[in-house]
Amino acid sequence: MGFTEVYDYEAGKKDWGSYGLPREGTQAAELTGGEVARRDVPTCTLEDDLREVRESVRASGWDTCIVVNDARVVLGRLGRRAIRNDDDASVEEAMTEGPSTVRPSIGVSALLERMKSRDLTSFLITTPDGRLVGLALRTDAEAHIAK
Amino acid sequence: MKPIGRDEVRRLVATGAQLVEVLPRPEYEEEHLAGAINIPLKELNRDSAQQLDRERPVIVYCNDFQ
Asked: In chain B, which residues have their Cβ closer than 8 Å to the Cβ of A7?
């Protein structure tokens, strides 16, 4: 058609919305899971010393830690009990494998409904290839809905 | 058509590129990238493309990788 420069933004508007970039439209006002996710959630690797991880997580005020590989792909999650315990387990032994995740483009209201239906206080947000975006907290989602 | 990522989209838009959402109009009206126009894929032809400036880069997109 005579155009010299044509590009394909393959990841499209789901990707755009996940990062809170400017949108327009009748539904554009709703925040996404990616936007409310806490990106400062602690992370560790399988090789880390669990005792040191626990100490660091407790000191940061969190009660959970996400186990990732070098590419930040989520492998598991150290939950409240794993952080509170004081045994000699390894990260791999203590973590819960394959935690449920949702994509960053999910709307906050849909995310909150999912947490309520599963009686969860948080939900992991990952990219389609499993990389950690952050942890969405139910309290944050409820606060955003209430605004 | 060259595939690009989010950062490249932002850079090109800042220098005058045109954003085109090729999804059906109802989806566009619900939500689209700021500044994008809508030319549904089924309506994309020489006539509908006339609203675009041929001298400036064009970035097309839909929902995701599909």
From this structure: 1-4, 8-9, 12, 17, 57-60
Chain A 117-146, residues with CB within 8 Å of chain B CB atoms: 128
DSSP state of B17: P
**Selection from A118, A116, A115, A144 nearest residue A36 by Cα:** A144
Task: Report the DSSP pairing between strands A96-97 and A74-78.
Answer: antiparallel
Q: For the whole model, what pTM was predicted?
A: 0.67
Q: Which residues contact B20 (CB under 8 A, 6 or more apart)?
A: B36, B37, B38, B39, B52, B58, B59, B60, B61
Query: In this structure, what token pair is assigned to residue A14?
Result: 């789901």
Q: How does pLDDT run across A18-36, given as a tens digit for each residue?
A: 777 888 998 777 788 888 9
Q: Give the Cα separation of A23 and B53 in Å (integer).
A: 22
**Distance of alpha carbon B37 from alpha carbon B40, whole angstroms:** 10
